[in-house]
Design brief:
Layout: H1 5-44, H2 49-63, H3 67-77, H4 87-113, H5 116-124, H6 129-159, H7 171-182, H8 186-215
Helix pairs in contact: 1-4, 1-6, 1-7, 1-8, 2-4, 3-4, 4-6, 5-6, 6-8, 7-8
Amino acid sequence: MTWDWHAVSDFMPHFWDGLLVTLQALALGSLLSFTLGLVWTLLMRAPTRWVRWPVGVVTEFVRNTPLLVQLFFLFYVLPEWGLTFSALSTGVFAIGLHYSTYTMQVYRAGIEAVPVGQWEAATALNLPRRRIWTAVILPQAIRRVIPALGNYVISMLKDTPMLMVITVLEMLGQARLFSQQRFQFTEPLTVIGVAFILISYLASLLLRALERRLVR
């Protein structure tokens, strides 16, 4: 087996297209998972069980079914009910929804880690409930859970190749298409593997820097 640099050169335009889609799916999926995760967490702390119970059922169902099954369902079944979205939008929603059930648990742990004295002090100052959450509890909780949320960002990155099954041409999808057209698999798949390693490493460095900044 010989390494073909011409194949690498020919593949690079496809790689950049796939990288852009991968990063777009990762960024939007992460934003959605962080937002939905926080919403689930707050709803689970609602005083009435008629709010907590449905949220608990939905999040448990999503957490305990494979992401691949959810992708197929959203992309192939929903159109039969008149709900049609682009492949990328479906993939972003599936990743964001799936991982929101995990970030939900991260937020819950962060909120429970806030000292009881912080709650008592805010209550003693007669702060409105919304003010207690936005100015006292959530800033402390989110600062504590940045490392865990960062781990899920990297997990989402490694799950983006699954979007290939719903026709999204992210990095692996581009590599697969190129390989099938050229019958050259080693070069494009190696480039993709190295790219995932580098992106994961850079993401971990950025998250560590953010963590240090927030801890100050």
